[in-house]
Amino acid sequence: MTRLTKKEVLHVAELSNLKLSEGEVKKFLPQLSKIIEYVSQLSKVNTKEIKPTSQTTGLTNVYRENSNELGETLTQEEVLSNTDGYNGFFKVPAILEGRTNK
Amino acid sequence: MNLPLTIKETQEGLKSKKFSAVELVDTYLEKIKKYNDEYKIFLTINEEGAYKKAKEIDNSDFTLPLFGVVGSYKDIFLTKGIRTTAGSKILENFIPPYSATIVKKLENAGVISIGKLNCDAFAHGSSGENSDFGTTLNPWNKEYTAGGSSSGSGAALSSGMSLISIGTDTCGSIRLPANYGYLFSLKPTYGAVSRYGVIAMASSLDTVGPLAHTVSDVETVFNVIKGKDYLDATVTEKSINNKNSKFKIGIPKEFFVGGLSKEIEKNIGEVIKIYKNENVEFIDVSLPSTKYGISVYYIIQPAEVSSNLSRFDGIRYGGLRDSFGEEAKRRIMLGSYVLSAGFYDAYYEKAMKVRTIIKNEVDSIFTKVDALIAPVAPTPAFKLGEKTNDPLSMYLTDIYAATANLSGIPAIAIPSGFSDKKLPLGFQLMAPRFGEDILFKLGKIFELATDYKPKVAF
């Protein structure tokens, strides 16, 4: 059986920008292992010379006319309506050390 | 008043002044207020907006295609000024500044939008139990699931809280709630209906479609919502002109083995007999690789989920990533895993290749038949709580749904009776891409042959 290790689960959580509690790690480990085990049956399928499918529309390079009638754009107020913002800007967490988050 | 169950009945009633649109809204709201606390079907009720629109309809000349039709939307469609949660706490207070294209199209066609419907958070689930706002109960029997992820979209119709509803189907999420609610629904061809303003789950699989009480109503709503949208570059306008007067349906043997309930197998056997009496031909066909459908789906979908949900950073809208529920976290983790260095080729790339094999098998079958018949799910509605501790068993509920999404073809869910426990039974038909008309024709043949009458649970 494909057994994920706790280290792998924590690594994947970090890649996913998720903070898992100890309880969640304990719960997810066997569940994710079981799902990975199930989907691993694909290794039996011969896919030599088969091209991957990423979408089914068959469309490539979709263009449109550039026009003023392409509908409304949102105002600054609307764009910021679901966040606290700061002075008409989005407020992001500080990413440089030694700065306060203001 | 007795609520009308079809668009025709609604519009005739309005035209002949048997009732007004305002009275219709009164009656729907009365029902919603009486049952919603218990059944958890609506997350937000648009009372003020619905009355405003109803008054407009009453003063109109009744010419719009959907005038007076009371509709509701899975809470995954953005509605300007009306809270949209995707069933997740992370969007508990999100008020969209714009509406989804399909919401605009329906409202412009005369639909009275009565509210937003409960669903599994971010459409992750098959039972509605992953909603962060409580589980929708099945109006036919409240101990059972209403089906997911568009759980409210099915239950709103089977409880008579709405005439039509809209859901999304990434792997069965429109068809399953219709199937468990004695309803018709269409999962359209991938790319037939705009997804602008729909909170994305898995972008190469997501489709938008209607649920209703008759084939005609599904068709009428589909005709309003389909078609080009400059805001969604994946939309194509096409339709297959099938002039057949005699149809041939394939029975894929892989869909009638193993875990299928005897009751459903027997019911579909009867459906086939009914069709044969109507001069529809059946042949046995084989789609050997569809057995890998759920494996392909549970690699591709989580991969796309992990990407789509990465935009939730709590900066522009919504809460912090800690407010994701368990299932969202599980899928993000799975997706990150199959996309991560060292595993990409073995899982993600491999799944995309097997998807090609499944798609090719399906395409080649449609050179021999006009449609395929299959169960919607392995069992009738299951009991709430039955699968919540075992994600894999929940995922396998969608084993018959995956083929249509992976190959981008349309599928219609059709009600066909009740189980011993008085739970709805149904089946699905699939057609080639843009072959929706074939499905509507076959659906109508079945309706006529069985003298189908719409039913609500209460």
Automatic annotation (TrEMBL), chain B:
GO biological process: translation
Top class in the EC scheme: ligase
CC annotations in GO: glutamyl-tRNA(Gln) amidotransferase complex
Family: Belongs to the amidase family. GatA subfamily.
Functional note: Allows the formation of correctly charged Gln-tRNA(Gln) through the transamidation of misacylated Glu-tRNA(Gln) in organisms which lack glutaminyl-tRNA synthetase. The reaction takes place in the presence of glutamine and ATP through an activated gamma-phospho-Glu-tRNA(Gln).
Assembly, per entry: Heterotrimer of A, B and C subunits.
PANTHER family: GLUTAMYL-TRNA(GLN) AMIDOTRANSFERASE SUBUNIT A, TRANSAMIDASE
UniProt-recorded name of the protein: Glutamyl-tRNA(Gln) amidotransferase subunit A
Organism of provenance: Candidatus Woesebacteria bacterium GW2011_GWC2_31_9
Gene behind this protein: gatA
